[in-house]
Records
---
Amino acid sequence: MPIQVLMPALSPTMTEGKLARWVKKEGDTVASGDVIAEIETDKATMEVEAVDDGTLGKLLIEEGAEGVAVNTPIAVLLAEGESADDISDADTQAPEAPRQEEASAAVSVSAAADQIEGEEITDRDILLAQGKILPPPPFDESAFTDMKEMTVREALQSAMAEELRRDENVFIMGEEVAEYQGAYKITQGLLDEFGDKRVIDTPITEHGFAGLAVGAAFKGLRPVVEFMTMNFALQAIDHIINSAAKTLYMAGGKLGCPIVFRGPNGAAARVGAQHSQDFASWYAHIPGLKVLAPWSAADAKGLLKAAIRDPNPVVFLENEILYGQSFEAPVDEEFVLPIGRAKIERAGTDVTIVAYSIMVGKSLEAAETLQNEHGISAEVINLRSIRPLDRYTILQSLKKTNRIVCAEEGWPCAAIGAEIAALAMEHGFDDLDAPVRRVCAADVPLPYAANLEQLALPQAARIVDAAREVCYVG
Amino acid sequence: MQIIKQIESLLRRSRVPKQKNDLSLEDLHKLYREMLLIRRFEERAGQLYGMGLIGGFCHLYIGQEAVVTGIQSVQEPQDSVVTAYRDHGHMLACGMDPKGVMAELTGRIDGYSRGKGGSMHMFSREKNFYGGHGIVGASTSIGTGLGFAHKYNGDGGVAVAYMGDGASNQGQVAESYNMAALWKLPVLYIVENNRYGMGTSTERHAAGDLYKRGVGYGIPGGQVDGMDLLAVREAAQKALDHIRAGNGPHILEMMTYRYRGHSMSDPAKYRTKEELASYKDEKDPIDKVKSLLLEKGANEEDLKALDKDVKDIVAEAAQFAQDSPEPDPSELWTDVLVGVE
């Protein structure tokens, strides 16, 4: 029976790729291990090897085809004694798709939803530290009308490229950021344009290069430190906290540390417990740090530019699954989002869903379901900034909806949701018509098995359930 | 065999032979005064600590004065310095004001960090002093970053990164050596081997010689009598020349000794009185320079005057540090972040 050759997934998060080149042609005999095609993913060009012996009976996908979904049959291999006539229609059709993965089509977001008032305030940082609730800094996002569809990856890359062009003191360092073009291709092309003085491959030595970058920042340079994943930043967390975050205070304001620590954070796709952790609440705990977590391409671009321009240490938490997702985002090089300002992604009246990073998308999905299936109007707040937290916007929304659900990928204990629950209790007690509900990762190390991972991570359906509970809708 | 020979030559290159020094009497006077200032300052800090005017941790530099004085004396103005927590001597050697340092020790508003840093955390951009770091080993990678910035800016500066013998066992020290060698960064690593990482002797905490720790990375290293100002100067000058010529980093292990405990609360029971006495009586770095001065024809009266001068400076600093007010309560909230709006 003819054997299907399927489009392989070549990375944990790959959902589709381009069939760049057929190395073998129809009629060629192939042995197990022979390269039959080259495939371009969003990260790299990779070779596809035959797994079985046989003759290539039919190529089902043309060379150069883009967006070929993982598991699509791309060729049919004939066993000995078979001919092309033996190929049936069933052989050329995709097997039943395994459950999984959100679509990576462009997510359209109505910019009009962001109606938060803002205010210029001097000494904002001090007042926030003292626990005051302040309107966020003003910003008119709708003024940026020249939009382009781009992936989060492209948004991050362009933010860095623009800031490297703008300021000679900015440099990028990390593992595989230069010649390899980035482990996740976020730094693609930067070495070519800026050279190896400013785009620097480091050894695998997180503690050392984080400390080195802090020293460089003390001297006035503006390092952007990429961690291949934020999990590896655990090796460097001493410098992030003790050297970067605390020095300005310990120096009585005489020496600051303008630096960005960035990298993918949270779960990817089945990469196991050591590579899947959301560190938002860890860094949110630390005075002297700013902590950002973008969801959309606009977030990614506007917040990363803000982080690089900020004179303080900023921890910038990206998400691997979002890298390939497309959004409309402003092309303006001065699109710099204010740190500490959340965005209302969807206006609603019955319940407030507070989320950051990948959970914003899941919350919007949940909001659709709530509207369509349960008649519940949910307001979705994209925090963007974890520290400082835009407490004003959350409380304003609570005033309107009287109910809050927090959605995050972190574990429940001492997490961002716990902070928001505390906020609602301390400052919005009279506005609450129901207890705050938190949707978090299960309180276990992230498992590898696909079904268990799915169970451990917060999904849209759980946000829907939580929202129905706080609305008392059965 | 071949490799061992190469390593030997790499190390020998920077091992410092004793040579007669060409310092003028005036220069020697100046360095003597600097060492004495550190000694008297630290003695007074110990006293203020005993009076309850200085709190928390307070690590005194007494006994090690020749190290920082010798190195600083051959640096260029654009060079930068970073060290760990036994840092008062480094600040004074960099030219920071004793009044500001002492007022920081007493936690007052006129301290270098407005009273918010304390003994281990003072900084001066003007004097190119980058701390003052309390985490053992941190100063090494931060210092590597200072060297990175010197190279990036092309300003001809060298970063002098101090660490103790205890710090040399930290992983980030090895990581820093690797990067500094790989990228030929202008960094002079100084291991101040005072023979104890807190209460654990070097023999018990470090395998092999600390100045050889860079050999695997191709970093030359030398061991120097850190109680001898002139030996320190000479070794540091050679190392700095090597670095400034674009050859990358260099390690110097300074064999020294601290007379006091690790911190004020350390009774130092891990060593004998005889051991301490052998340094104080026979190898004291300040006594050594004083003999040299007298040998060279310095006047005993002049030295007495100098001594008094230094005592006055320290007394004035101590008074200043007690008169300066505590920080205003509003200081609690400032300097957490650089304001943006």
Note: The radius of gyration of chain B is 20 Å.
---
Amino acid sequence: MKITKTPVKSPAKAPKAAAKPKVAFFDFACCEGCQLQVANIGEALLDILGAIDVVEFREVMSEKYDKDYDVVIIEGSITDHHAEERLKKIRARAKVLIAYGACAAIGGVNGMKNSFKLDEIRQYVYGKDYKLFDSTPTRAIHQVVKVDYTINGCPIYPPELVEVLKHALRGLPYTVPDNPVCSECKLNENVCMYERGVACLGPWTKAGCNSWCVNNGNICYGCRGEVNHPAKNAAKDVIAKYNLKPELIKNKFDMYNKCKEGGK
Amino acid sequence: MTEIKNSNWKLRKGQIIAAKQMTAAEKWFDIKLEDGDLDHEPGQFVQVELYGVGEAPISVCSSPTKRGSFELTVRSAGRLTKHMQGLGKGDWLGIRGPFGKPFPVKLMTGNDLLFVAGGLGIAPLRSLINYVIDNRREFGKVDILLGCKTPTDMLFGDEIKGWQKRLDVEFRCTVDRSDPDWKGNVGLITSLIPGVTITPEKTFAVVVGPPIMYKYVIAELLKKSLPERQIILSLERHMKCGMGKCGHCQIDHPKNYYCCKDGPTFTYEEVKDSKKL
Amino acid sequence: MKSWPVSGSEVLPFLIFTAFLRPPRRAGEASRPLIEYNIWAVSVIIKTEATSVNYHILRKDKLDGFIKSLARKMKVCAPVAKGHNNFAFEEVSSAGEIALSYIPTILPPKKYFMPQREKMLDFDLTGDQPKDAANLEAPGMAIFGVHTCDLAGIQCLNMVFSEKPRDYNYILRKEKVLIIGLECNAYCDGHASCALVGNHYPNGGYDLFFTDLGDRFIIHVNTQKGEELVEGMGLAKANPADMSALDAVREGKKKAFQNEIGTELKDLPAVFAKGTDSKVWKEVGDRCVSCGNCTNVCPTCYCFDMADTINLDMKTGFRTRTWDSCQFGTFATVAGGENFRSERSERQRHRLYRKFKYPIDKFYRSFCTGCGRCTRTCMAKISLKDTLKALVAENK
């Protein structure tokens, strides 16, 4: 693929080269690992930076910008009242909001908090003065404000970030594939993890990551969230075929998908 | 690297020479191809490519008797058609086609015609209706029945007024839900069929509309003793290649029909054994 | 093969000569008209000529030399062990890398003819008017060790993509591939159903075809391209003993390979025609995960999706074709939202109709090649053989 560096001018509603879209990154409860993935984009990063104007990015800059944003990229999940208020304020100033990474998209590992009674877990973490520390059940971004685009994954898959950004800049909807990870894993001709005797969440997890983990010898941890119509009966068959315990699969799913019960 | 000069994936270049918002969700485009006429027949479709966005199959809504350009009416439904709403005069499109089996115009010659259109079904049917009007003396009695959700959803309003005024065409229309300005029929399109005089041995009915409409309209037509092979339908599927290969438009029917190649127009006799119409 | 004499003056001495080449006459057998001897002699000559000219021998210890020599000419792909009894066609440069005894690979060789993701069109919007070009990169290559089931799969795809309007991406790729088949002397495993569809024997579709005769391979040369290759490598012609050994292998397979479902292939379309509303589909649908594994690994599944990608310059981009699966929930949806195959049972039925009903009506051949991949790869252990048997049983 030839990458040329002409100024951005899309066929429809092109943001003019002179006024590049203002893009801001904000993080909530997360490890900020997804923001670091931006650095892993490689060569395309220069083209992206040529197409947008990054106005907030805590990982690399600290200036404060006080106007509206064309695109905000939200990393992390919402775990206390303060975060909820801050997110709503950001949303009010953003034309387009992208939920970025598993924590933002589906709650991610922070959702494990929801496996416990809120006060019990607060007490466990903060000790006897736990009431002094604000805390709510973990929520994904779309469970608090309207989300225009979702980039799944823990961490996000850099080529998908590039694709979603291009869609967002052109005002096109981006569809997260609703097929299981298996569908991409097979195209990559990986030996099925189940054949290796290891339980993998590929059959129930949304594709779009090009089976990144399995390509590199790891199982799918379900970080992109469950497909919309998971085959419940089939799951029983799969578990039986490979002599696995249903709890094993459920526990693995809980690692990233505990906010699902949170609704919306 | 070799260039495949005769690749069937290559696109004809079309420029929008006129565009008009018809309803809140539907927009009309007049498109001129740089390599000449589209050379289609009524009932055929084209694949419209918005470079970098994707491709979608769209019925041609103008008659081949109109030369120099062709027309599309696009409802904002999928990714491509939503984006198309933002296009206007001067914008370029990629076009593949025309594809598909057209309405059997030759077989219809000398017969009475009954057109039944529901909603956006008027788009492919308009191609045939205008063709028939332009060749009016070749056909017998012509009845047009049109059904819309509400009066504001009606497409081609100005043109329809023209059809209403014609002495050689009988036009009737109904809406599911009325509004204060509406003076016409209210009710489902099936309610208009009993009022039409049909001579079963020499009438072709051409029915185009949403899948739900087919079942009821066909039942009414069969009640009028119209033979199954004289009921022509245009089925909707998502044709992704137009060449009978990608598999998306295959109909669940013992005969292995691809909507893009064997259709989209079928006689009811051909497709009555389909799982879904 | 040499051309036969055609003119009368050439035919007459030939007939007289062949008339003396009598088959051994059994005791008590009446003498037969001369023409019968002619026919017998001609048939012997044809048979001998076919066998001696078109078969060559490669000693197994020379296979490495063969592969290396081939690899110097072009990219060579062959089955490679991936562990856990999984195999895949991958590029090789020596015989040592090749798994000669392998069960069907994860993906069939269709990936070399119709890549998983293939660029069909480049476009450029920098000028006043859009420009596009269909560029193809398909360097010459050889696939070594293709089993008869996969040869049949390629033949099926050839039919589909050569049908008008033709798919030139496929056709041009195909022309660049040299295919070297490899016979299965025994079943790969219990999931295969190649005898049902008659693909346990070679039915063409290759340039060269290898059969293992213990210490050596006997190679059937099927094309001029194949002939030039073996001639160039100086491989010896097969002798009558080699031919008998090949016959013995084939004869042994007659017993080893038996129709796996106990119903003839020709009877299946009728079974399917009657079985549209069978409860078998419901049962299979209840178990299906919709992962699309069965279609991705199928040698004859070719459904695809098209998508556009724009480059970051927002002015250039390309259209790609990606393998799609009729098992995915949205495969048969239209923009308005209507889904013409929303149930898993409908989608599974559709998949098997596209193997045993539609293609038999249209192309006179089964699009199931009997490779057994769909059963092997199914997450839910849905077995093709069991499904077919259940469907047949219901129709009895």
Note: Chain A has two domains: 22-170, 182-258.
